[in-house]
């Protein structure tokens, strides 16, 4: 057992991969009670990965399932000429092709100033660089609060803990009180969110047109109504081969806009049963089709991805999740009737965003997609 309040950690054999339920629960609770996350372990000077993070041998990263022969061709789409009718058609074709085959694409000239993107990443970094006593003030598992700091949303559900800490900021549809946020994020959080909302509206227009719908369709049905900004912080890991930054999963939203770390890679995408590295592209944002959009449309099946742990760090990323999350709403989303035909029958039943997110939280970030919950 690990005492998370001291530097005295019991050396744990890498071959020991199972724990009795009660022992694991006690370790999880002791970790959560520190209210300082994985960063707190690093601050305490640990040199071994605690047992709660260690995955069984068959789930560890040994590169045998990673395709090193070639990079996955995730398109980089230039949005500079999106207002030109001819060039817009080319952009829409590229968005369609990427969405149908991979579920990911990158965008440049997206309208978000580089200094704004840098400042939001630096704000997340500064928050975690604070002393533990300062971070504790925001630590909570009350998922409906406007600003949440914790480690692993599925800490008590998942079979193994991920090597990361997270900030969650609910920015829309109800604008937050700036005083809800720590000072280093107060202004930039609002500024960055405004830019992401504008970009999201444009992306939903392009996706609508890619499906043969009117440009405003996805925005009008509410895909761009909610926005949550998530700051993920991956501290350096002393034994990265034993754990993961984030386990294999699909995003439980309509669309994700990810600002990767400029210097430290770690993101991998699953394609044709192989994992591919997705190194950052300077100035680009990575776009990911989420499960809620998959449930309504006919794009690529599952956009599964994971994040590796790394000896280097910290790795800091900022993701914009387009979803109303757990906020109350009676709006129901289901297969779009204009796309349903005898050849393309509906695959999933309708749901509210809140019910879908609750199902995701109940199972945790696992390889089992939340779409299984909606399958007809």
UniProtKB/TrEMBL annotation:
InterPro entries in alphabetical order: DIOX_N, IPNS-like_FE2OG_OXY, IPNS-like_sf, Oxoglu/Fe-dep_dioxygenase_dom
Fe2OG dioxygenase domain: which residues?
225-324
In its keyword annotation, does this UniProt entry include Transcription?
no
Alphabetically sorted, this entry's keywords are: Iron, Metal-binding, Oxidoreductase
| Molecular function as annotated in GO | dioxygenase activity; metal ion binding
Keyword Endoplasmic reticulum appears in the UniProt entry: no
Q: Which family does it belong to?
A: Belongs to the iron/ascorbate-dependent oxidoreductase family.
Q: What is this protein called?
A: Fe2OG dioxygenase domain-containing protein
């Amino acid at each position: 057992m690990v005492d998370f309040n001291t530097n005295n950690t019991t050396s744990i054999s890498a071959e020991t991969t199972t724990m009795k339920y009660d022992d694991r629960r006690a370790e999880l609770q002791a970790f959560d009670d520190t209210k300082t996350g994985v960063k707190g372990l690093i601050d305490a000077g640990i040199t071994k990965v605690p047992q709660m993070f260690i995955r069984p041998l068959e789930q560890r990263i040994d590169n045998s399932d990673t395709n090193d022969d070639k990079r996955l061709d995730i398109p980089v789409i230039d949005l500079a000429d999106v207002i030109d009718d001819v060039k817009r058609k080319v952009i829409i074709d590229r968005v369609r092709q990427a969405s149908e085959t991979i579920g990911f694409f990158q965008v440049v000239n997206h309208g978000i100033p580089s200094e704004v993107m840098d400042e939001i990443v630096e704000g997340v970094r500064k928050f975690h660089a604070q002393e533990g006593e300062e971070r504790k003030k925001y630590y909570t598992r009350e998922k409906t609060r406007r600003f949440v700091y914790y480690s692993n949303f599925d800490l008590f559900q998942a079979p193994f803990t991920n090597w990361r800490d997270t900030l969650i900021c609910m920015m829309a549809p109800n604008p937050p009180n700036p005083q809800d946020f720590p000072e280093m994020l107060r202004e930039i959080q609002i500024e960055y969110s405004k830019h992401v909302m504008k970009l999201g509206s444009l992306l939903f227009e392009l996706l609508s047109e890619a499906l043969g719908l009117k440009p405003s369709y996805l925005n009008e049905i509410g895909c761009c109504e909610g926005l949550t900004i998530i700051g993920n912080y991956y501290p350096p890991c002393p034994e990265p081969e034993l754990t993961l930054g984030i386990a294999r999963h699909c995003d439980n939203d309509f669309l994700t806009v990810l600002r990767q770390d400029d210097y430290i890679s770690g993101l991998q995408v699953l394609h044709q049963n192989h994992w591919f590295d997705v190194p950052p592209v300077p100035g680009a944002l990575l776009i990911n089709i989420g499960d809620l959009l998959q449930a309504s449309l006919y794009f690529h099946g599952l956009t599964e991805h994971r994040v590796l742990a790394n000896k280097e760090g910290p790795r800091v990323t900022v993701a914009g999740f387009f979803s109303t999350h757990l906020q109350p709403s009676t709006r129901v989303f289901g297969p779009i009737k204009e796309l349903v035909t005898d050849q393309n029958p509906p695959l999933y039943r309708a749901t509210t965003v809140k019910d879908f997110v609750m199902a995701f939280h109940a199972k945790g970030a696992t390889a089992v997609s939340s779409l299984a919950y909606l399958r007809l």
